[in-house]
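Input sequence (241 aa), recorded before submission:
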Amino acid sequence: MAQSWEVGAMAGGSNYHGDLAYNIVPKETNVSGGAFFKYNFNEYWTVRPTLSYMKISGADSNFNEYRLRNLSFRNNIYEVSNVMEFNFQPFSNQAIHGRTTAYALLGLGLFLHKPEAKLNDEWVSLQPLRTENQKYKLMQISVPMGIGVKHAINPNFIVGFEAGWRKTFTDYLDDVSSTYADPTDGGATYRALVDRSYEVSETGQPLASQGDVRGDANLDDWFFQTAFSISYRFTPIKCPF
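Predicted structure, token format:
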């Protein structure tokens, strides 16, 4: 057995897949970071509670076929999660084990998000506007999963790189999911953000009507993180062999 404790931090980039990005858009990559605590049960299994921050964004202007819809957003996500890591090679501070291993992770998370859109140089919170006549929740469940590699510089310090995916159960990370609501149901800010096609149309008039398709309600949104990490391992078990 090779039980040990670790504390560490990670920093990298974040992105998303959804109605405003059916492919990952490199220029929409934003900053992410986090702090974690680990308990290594043995050389193969680790449990890792983590507190993370990830920023995501997207815009129809990145895709020619969606340019006329002209929607865009940003979202600051705060997530607390607990994942299990499985090392593909035995990994500990014992001399009989290697200093490098790839690993896979899977767990459960809870995150708080807040989609916003920029209007007249100001960021506007979208969820209270009910742009699709839906009142979705800002606190949601996620399923973190991913792969990574880690290397022990010495018995105490460990560095790594990880690519993680978050399965969600909401289609509103970007505030876009189903159909256009009635543009006359709210005030000036509401009318300006429900249908932004007027900003790029030749006539200066909105191109959609109430009930027209605004997004794909059959596909939930995902968000992603790639990050470098460093951790310090406490109470290592020394082995003379």
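Checked by second reader. Residues 38 and 48 are 5 Å apart (CA to CA).
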